[in-house]
């Protein structure tokens, strides 16, 4: 009954009351009327109207308007004033504006409005796709979307690398808005089953010029193939591309080009103070160190060309402690670490961030004072994006560019063409401080830091060599030796290419034949050629690897070959290995030649290993000479020897000739003589064993008798009772007969010797006030005290038979 009444009650409550039903229908009608009014207002909107200055002047839904108010966005920026009205009317847009001008809201507001006007729900699938070139920028866009769209009912997701692909795939089907990076999104489109993008309404490409660049070209082309043709497309960047091929790839239809700052005098914010310093490559780190020491109360971003340089500068400066908190960020880090470092730098008041171009575009770090570009950017657009991390939205900022003397003229022309104002400044002499010695000391103490320095050197030289703009980046004019020295390296690391050489031939050449700082032969191939058949020692190899160990420098100085100014004909000291006594490698190879002699012979080398010979006819056989372990396989095996009484050596086992064996007699007779001799030896050993066993039994009986006498004396109060002797004048001992009798259960001595009587142990004298019981108790306590409270059984030798073990067990059980 209770269950039935409960069901009835639930059924009654599920029926809507007449008043509630009417209120719902009225609310639905009111919502539909508001939606129709909003659509009419969008249709009547004039995108070129000068009256549009605030977000309240735009026809926006209440959910978007309240989210903007809660996020304190009120006044429209120039790019927002020009782009949002056109996007609300469904136009495709190419938006270009200065860095920090508010481009993120210029496409987020149209995305929310587009889906709201279409009454988009979770059952309709993916409605908006926002693509960003870097993970940091994607995370930033997603955070702004969460703030502005907090009152909407759309589901939004962040799809970037570094997270679980499976977990992302499980949620993709329920997402209405996705913020992603191109590679990760393409991976889901290819691998995630059931992921449908056929209903996509709007596509946004932030930093479109970078996404359409060669780095993402294949990924973007494959991604666009999955998307429907009927969609709205928005492209935004600080430096926009107008190439017809790019527009055709994205299927843009009559796009509106929005460039509010195209008529401006400069391509960078007016509040940004820009300057450059001409500094040699070998002094860049010295200048950077002096700059950091002079600006400890600032927030600084330092851009370098590669992640390996970022790691080296960060690790080395961290050891030197400039006095400002240091952070580093590059693309090789884990996603969790990248997000944590980004958050820490954004919230820091004074800090220095060493970074690559992963944060050069779009990332909004608040209150950045300085942007330092230690390495020259690849083009003027990259420069504009880098300096855009400061002086954002009416705030002030300063930027400094380090230029190598060979880069100055060419790069200044590129900046002038892009309308970038920049002025030259000089470093004060008193601010300069050389840190080469300190870096070299740290590299010497830490092999890991030296390894990072070598990788930083190679990555920088490769980036300069592979740059397309050869008018700016002149590889041949770089001081590579000075650069290596400025990094604290003991020598110039080897690089696998040189200007004007065949790259494939150099890549396939041996590593030892390539060098950047050594003398060249007549062919210009870097290091002097070594003959292929030459066998070099490990010391010579160590000295040639200048970038591996500082020990090689000391080795060259020891030989008087320090630097390229040494004699070209001088060779390294040849180290000879002794083979089998006085046989040496050079003598075995034929003649008194040096180990590094480059002359070759037609006949293969023959090395004598004792009585045997080893033919060196391949490079693998040459390697055998360097390993004692492998060389031992080819050497004669030694024999163990024994020495007779005269001191003559003989093998342990000597085989007798058949003739000598036949002269000794028939085999059966020799076998019988051998068995008889061995039998006699066994009998003699058996007699000795029996004598030893007899001696042990005798000693055991003596110990047993002594133990019995002691117990008897203790039982009678310290003295045995004596028998009275009749006729004592005779003086005969009445117990003499008993002592001569054998003990019951024992054996009589075969030799008839009488056992010596031992005196009983002396007992402690009884005190006059003690009776027998008290005396025994005191003696027992004394024994326990001497033995540590434990009973100790003394054994003359270790028990080796059953009788000894039984005696030991009886003693342990006795109390």
Automatic annotation (TrEMBL):
Residues 1-43, 507-547, 653-801 are annotated as: Disordered. It is found in: Nucleus, Nucleolus. One of its GO terms (cellular component) is nucleolus. It catalyses: ATP + H2O = ADP + phosphate + H(+). Keywords: ATP-binding, Helicase, Hydrolase, Nucleotide-binding, Nucleus, Ribosome biogenesis, RNA-binding, rRNA processing. The keyword DNA-binding does not apply. Residues 284-433 form the Helicase C-terminal domain. Its EC number is 3.6.4.13. Residues 84-258 form the Helicase ATP-binding domain. Belongs to the DEAD box helicase family. This is ATP-dependent RNA helicase. It comes from Parathielavia appendiculata. The lineage of its organism: Eukaryota, Fungi, Dikarya, Ascomycota, Pezizomycotina.
């Amino acid at each position: 009954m209770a269950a039935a009444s409960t069901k009835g009650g639930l059924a009654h409550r599920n029926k809507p009351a007449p008043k509630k039903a009417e209120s719902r229908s009225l609310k639905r009608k009111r919502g539909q009327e508001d939606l129709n009014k909003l659509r009419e207002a969008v249709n009547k909107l004039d995108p070129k109207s000068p009256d549009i200055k605030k977000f309240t002047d735009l026809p926006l839904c209440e959910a978007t308007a309240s989210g903007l108010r809660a996020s304190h966005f009120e006044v429209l920026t120039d790019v927002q004033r020009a782009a949002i009205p056109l996007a609300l009317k469904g136009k495709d847009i190419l938006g270009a504006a200065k860095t920090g001008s508010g481009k993120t809201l210029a496409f987020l507001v149209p995305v929310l409005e587009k889906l709201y006007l279409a009454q988009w729900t979770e059952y309709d699938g993916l409605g908006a796709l926002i693509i960003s070139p870097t993970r940091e920028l994607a995370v930033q866009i997603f955070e702004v979307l969460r703030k502005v769209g907090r009152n909407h009912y759309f589901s939004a997701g962040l799809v970037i690398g570094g997270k679980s692909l499976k977990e992302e795939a499980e949620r993709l089907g329920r997402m209405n808005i996705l913020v992603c990076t191109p590679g990760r999104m393409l991976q889901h489109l290819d691998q995630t089953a059931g992921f449908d993008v056929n209903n996509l309404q709007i596509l946004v490409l932030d930093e479109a010029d970078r996404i359409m660049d060669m780095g993402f070209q294949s990924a973007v082309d494959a991604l666009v193939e999955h998307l429907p043709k009927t969609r709205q497309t928005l492209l935004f960047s600080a430096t926009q591309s107008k190439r017809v091929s790019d527009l055709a790839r994205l299927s843009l239809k009559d796009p509106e080009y929005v460039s509010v700052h195209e008529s401006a005098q400069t391509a960078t914010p007016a509040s940004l103070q820009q300057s450059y310093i001409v500094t040699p490559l070998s002094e860049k780190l010295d200048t950077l160190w002096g700059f950091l020491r002079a600006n400890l109360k600032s927030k600084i971003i330092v851009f370098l060309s590669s992640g390996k340089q970022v790691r080296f500068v960060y690790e080395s400066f961290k050891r030197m402690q400039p006095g400002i908190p240091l952070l580093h960020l590059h693309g090789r880090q884990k996603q969790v670490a990248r997000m944590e470092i980004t958050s820490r730098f954004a919230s820091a008041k004074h800090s220095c961030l060493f970074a690559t171009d992963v944060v050069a575009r779009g990332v909004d770090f608040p209150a950045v004072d300085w942007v330092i570009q230690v390495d020259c950017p690849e083009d003027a657009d990259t420069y504009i994006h880098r300096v855009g991390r400061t002086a954002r939205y009416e705030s002030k900022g300063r930027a400094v560019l380090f230029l190598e003397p060979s880069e100055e003229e060419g790069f200044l022309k590129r900046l002038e063409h892009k309308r970038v104002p920049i002025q030259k400044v000089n470093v004060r002499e008193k601010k300069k401080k050389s840190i080469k010695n300190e870096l070299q000391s740290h590299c010497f103490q830490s092999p890991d830091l030296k390894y990072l320095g070598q990788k930083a050197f190679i990555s920088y030289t490769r980036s300069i060599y592979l740059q397309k703009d050869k008018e700016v980046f002149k590889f041949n004019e770089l001081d590579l030796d000075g650069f290596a020295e400025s990094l604290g390296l003991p020598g110039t690391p080897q690089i696998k290419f040189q200007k004007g050489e065949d790259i494939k031939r150099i890549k396939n050449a041996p590593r030892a034949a390539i060098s950047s700082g050594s003398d060249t032969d007549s062919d210009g191939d870097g290091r002097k050629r070594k003959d292929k058949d030459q066998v070099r020692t490990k010391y010579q190899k160590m000295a040639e690897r200048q970038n591996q160990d500082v020990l090689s420098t000391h080795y060259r100085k020891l030989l008087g070959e320090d630097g390229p100014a040494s004699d070209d004909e001088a060779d390294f000291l040849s180290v000879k290995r002794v083979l089998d006594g006085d046989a040496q490698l050079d003598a075995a190879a034929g003649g008194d030649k040096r180990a590094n002699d480059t002359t070759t012979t037609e006949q293969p080398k023959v090395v004598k290993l004792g009585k045997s010979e080893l033919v060196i006819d391949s490079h693998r056989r040459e390697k055998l000479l360097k390993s004692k372990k492998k060389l031992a396989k080819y050497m004669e095996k030694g024999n163990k020897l024994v020495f007779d009484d005269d001191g003559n050596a003989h093998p342990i086992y000597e085989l007798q000739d058949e003739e000598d064996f036949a002269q000794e007699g028939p085999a059966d007779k020799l076998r019988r003589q051998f068995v008889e001799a061995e039998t006699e030896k066994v009998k003699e050993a058996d007699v000795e064993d029996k004598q030893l066993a007899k001696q042990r039994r005798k000693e055991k009986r003596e110990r047993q008798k002594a133990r019995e006498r002691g117990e008897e004396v203790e039982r009678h109060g310290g003295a045995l009772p004596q028998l009275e002797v009749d006729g004592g004048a005779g003086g005969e001992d009445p117990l003499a007969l008993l002592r001569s009798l054998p003990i019951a259960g024992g054996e009589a001595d075969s030799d008839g010797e009488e056992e010596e009587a031992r005196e009983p142990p002396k007992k402690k004298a009884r005190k006059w006030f003690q009776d027998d019981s008290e005396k025994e108790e005191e003696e027992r306590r004394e024994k326990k005290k001497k033995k540590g409270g434990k009973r100790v059984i003394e054994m003359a030798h270790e028990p080796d038979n059953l009788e000894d073990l039984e005696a030991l067990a009886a003693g342990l059980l006795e109390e």
